[in-house]
Structure formats: structure tokens, C-alpha cells
Amino acid sequence: MNLSGFDDCWYGKWFKTRIFGKIHVFVPSTEGAKRILANDFVEFNKGYLKSMADAAGHKSLFAVPHESHTRIRRLLSDTFSMTSLSIFVKKFDNMLCERLKKLEADGKSFRVIDFTLKLTFDAMCDLLMSITDDSLLQQLGRDCKDVSSAIISFPVMIPGTRYYKGMKARKRFLETFKEMISKRRSGKEYHEDFLQSMLQRDSYPPSEKLDDSEIMDNLIVLLLSGQASSSAAMMWSVKYLDENRQVQDRLREEQLSINRNKPDGASLSLEDLNKMSYCLKVAKETLRMSNAVLWFPSCCT
Ligand code: HEM
């Protein structure tokens, strides 16, 4: 088979092609994904595209070499402590309940993916930077969409192209982040969130903190990664639950029984999540059956 003049080959489900002088292999199988993901930095390196590194940033997890990757990943995950997660579970539950009530009151039909994309994006903005202002969320949401589209694009700065729009949106992201960082440093603003915990490390040695470009580039990565996969997973679970009424009924019963044992009006807690054994199975089965992460590049060593 030949697409657009490239020399392409199919090996069962696997597909090999040559783009810009490099061999690319698409591996759409569970065994392939397991082999690649279990051999990070051994048989495979993180190998991201130029457009991905330009749009997310050269100091982001999407672009840095192995040594920085390990340090950045450690420092990023340190900030997702049990305490911050537990606050976040409560916030997320309240946010979701409010929005579902509004949808119910409106009584109109809606696209599930639009709902989950907005929900996960707003939730990530709150978790990372305590952004709750509607107009800022809308502006950042539009910019996030443009940066996402630029992630896989031809990296040429021609007005009108996806890459061009994405790079302009990235610039606006950075301006917003810089302003927020300077307000926090000058003490004009303080919030208990991811950004604050990063800035609290200002006096630490370089190996124990992220510099400003690392913070900003990785804020973009967390926004993109946090939004895309979780919103797709939620959308797919709604579809599968609609098609499997027995599973839906059993899942609802688990939720209701957890709710019955809580005081009236109490929010969801981390402990409640740990009781949702059937829900966890539904989430895992959804991820097994669906395409929450459409593709992910790695480079063979
Ligand atoms: C259903 C939800 C999710 C799924 C299925 C998912 C899946 C994945 C997969 C398969 C990868 C590639 C892993 C690798 O190459 O080692 C990845 C990477 C990543 N994900 Fe997620 N993810 C989800 C949610 C999230 C959320 C909520 C966040 C942010 C808070 C996030 C942040 C990231 C980041 C930063 C990376 C890049 C990691 C790196 O380069 O080391 N993901 N995700």
C-alpha cells in the first residue's frame, strides 16, 4: 500500500512508513504497548515530535532528555500528595454535581465529550493554579485547544496553520503564567495549589526545584495530558454503561450504598473512592476497550 508517495508497509496490524527521512512504526496492539511502556529508557526512549516539543515547550516532559526527565517527573509527582488529592476530590465532586444539576435543570441534550472536556480542563486549572474565573477559563480553554492541535502538525510558522495558531496560543499561555508567578512571588496572591508548591521551592538547590521555564512548560503538559485522556475515558464510560444496563445498575447501587452511609450533603472523600471496587473495574475495563490515549510516540534505542 502506498500513501502520498511514501514507502509504506503493513505487517498485520503494524504499519511502517518513512517520514522526513526517519522510519516510523505504528504499533496498535496491547503486546506492543506493554513491551514499549515496560522498557522506558531501556529499549525505548521518550521520542517526541518537533511540533510536540515546540508547542508544549522544550523544558517539558514531552521534550527533555532522560536525566532531566527523571528529575522533573519526581518533582512534579511530589506535589500530588495525599492531602492535596483529598482536597481535590472534594472540589471535583462539587464541581461535577453543580454542573450535572444545571444540565438537569436546562433539560437540553448535550455532547458528552464537550461536557467532559470543559469539566476536566476547568478542574485541572483549579488543581494546578486555582483559576476559577469563567472568562479566563474560556480564554485558556481556547488556547489549550490550539496548542493541542499544534502538537501533531508541520512545524512551519505560516499564518493560518495549526502550528502557527498553536505557537501563538502558547505565547499567551506563557504571558498568563508569568503574570501569575510574579503576583505569587510578590505576595499579592497566595493559593494552596500545585503552582504555589512549586514556588515554595525557590530557595532549594537546583536539583530539588524547577526553574520558571520548567514550571511553565510542564503546566502546559499537565493541562494537555490531564484534560485529553480523562475526558475521553469519561466519555467512553458513558457509552459503555449505556450499552450495558446490568453493569450500570450494579455501579449505581455501589454509588448509592456509599452515599447512604454518609451524612446528608457530605462531599465525596478519598476514603469513599477506595470503597468503589466495582467502579474501579468499570474504569479499567473502559480503558481496556477504548482509545483514551490515541497514540504516544517512543524512540527505539
Ligand atoms: C484516564 C486517564 C489517563 C490515562 C489513560 C493516561 C494515560 C497515559 C499514558 C498511556 C501515557 C504515556 C506513558 C509513557 O509513555 O510512559 C501518559 C503520559 C502522561 N500523562 Fe497520562 N493518563 C491519564 C490521565 C492523566 C492526568 C489526569 C494527568 C495530569 C494530572 C496526566 C499526565 C500525564 C503526563 C504528564 C504524561 C507524560 C509522562 C512522561 O513523559 O513521563 N495523565 N498518560
From TrEMBL:
Sorted UniProt keywords: Iron, Metal-binding
One of the record's GO molecular function terms: iron ion binding
Protein origin, superkingdom: Eukaryota
Alphabetical list of Gene3D superfamilies matching this protein: Cytochrome P450
Example GO biological process: sterol metabolic process
Keyword Ubl conjugation: no
InterPro entries referenced in this protein's UniProt entry, alphabetically: Cyt_P450 (IPR001128), Cyt_P450_sf (IPR036396)
One Pfam entry name: p450
Protein's recorded name: Uncharacterized protein
The organism's taxonomic lineage, starting at the top: Eukaryota, Viridiplantae, Streptophyta, Embryophyta, Tracheophyta
